[in-house]
Design a protein that fits this description.
The protein is mainly beta and 259 residues long. It is built from four helices and twelve strands.
């Protein structure tokens, strides 16, 4: 039976888990581009153990380009030329038996061969090597991506957006820029679990922890991409929701069996 998504505890995952993180990242210049899609379109791609997480009855497909820096194990300093690169992921939102809402990735493109190889072998995530750029000038930001390997060569595109004001300036229940629990912004951005399948098709999950995203409104200026269609979804060129975040510092925790 499908658990009603509105009944899921979305606050507990935002709290810091016990134990020591195995790595640290900084995520910056994130653009959250989302489309509403029918739940059944997403459900056919998921492992049997996972359920589609919905907001007001709709599933969501996200396209999220950003920059990683300071990528390192907890015991080692960042390495110039290795610890910083761009990434774009295509994702949806899931839960496990009505709890632990998280992310399911359809693809992750990164501009680092080492990161792609490690993520595919150790984290069991569908990473692809791509050539990518990120440019920001004032309130304008643009991203490009073109896939190299594995998969269909050239998948990617260009995204241009205009960054606006912080969200929630009139809502005093949380600091300006933070998403209020129960809103679409909180549903789309505040995700701390991700799920994957091991080489033996066992469902596994990882967890991250960071402060709440500082979020801004954003407006799409131009979008020409094939990443979402390559994942199996036919979406209109105009997204249903766009957000921007300047970024957060992230602690990364190890993989564990999901069930």
């Amino acid at each position: 039976m499908q658990q009603a998504s509105r009944d899921i505890d979305r606050i507990a995952p935002t709290q810091r888990p016990d134990g020591k993180p195995i790595g640290q990242h900084t995520w910056s210049n994130l653009l959250f581009v989302h489309w509403k899609v029918p739940r059944l379109e997403v459900e056919r791609f998921l492992p049997d153990e996972l359920s589609v997480d919905t907001f007001e009855g709709s599933a969501w497909i996200g396209l999220v380009p950003f920059q990683l820096s300071g990528v390192r194990p907890w015991w080692f300093p960042p390495v110039p030329g290795i610890s910083s690169f761009y990434e774009t992921n295509v994702r949806t939102y899931v839960h496990l038996d009505g709890k632990d809402p998280g992310v399911w990735f359809f693809s992750l493109d990164a501009a680092s061969s080492l990161a792609v190889r490690i993520a595919r072998s150790r984290w069991h995530l569908p990473y692809h090597r791509a050539h990518m750029t990120l440019e920001r000038s004032g309130g304008a930001i643009s991203y490009t991506s073109s896939r190299l390997w594995p998969g269909r060569f050239g998948v990617g595109g260009r995204i241009e957006a205009e960054v606006g004001d912080s969200i929630g300036a009139l809502d005093k229940s949380v600091p300006s820029g933070q998403a209020v629990p129960g809103t679409i912004e909180h549903f789309l951005a505040e995700r701390y679990f991700f799920y994957a399948q091991s080489a033996k098709n066992t469902l596994i999950r990882g967890r991250v922890h960071h402060s709440a995203y500082p979020l801004c409104e954003a407006r799409m200026r131009d979008l020409d991409q094939t990443l979402v269609s390559d994942a199996g979804f036919d979406v209109s060129n105009r997204p249903d929701h766009v957000l921007f975040s300047k970024g957060v510092n992230v602690d990364v925790f190890g993989l564990e069996p999901a069930t």
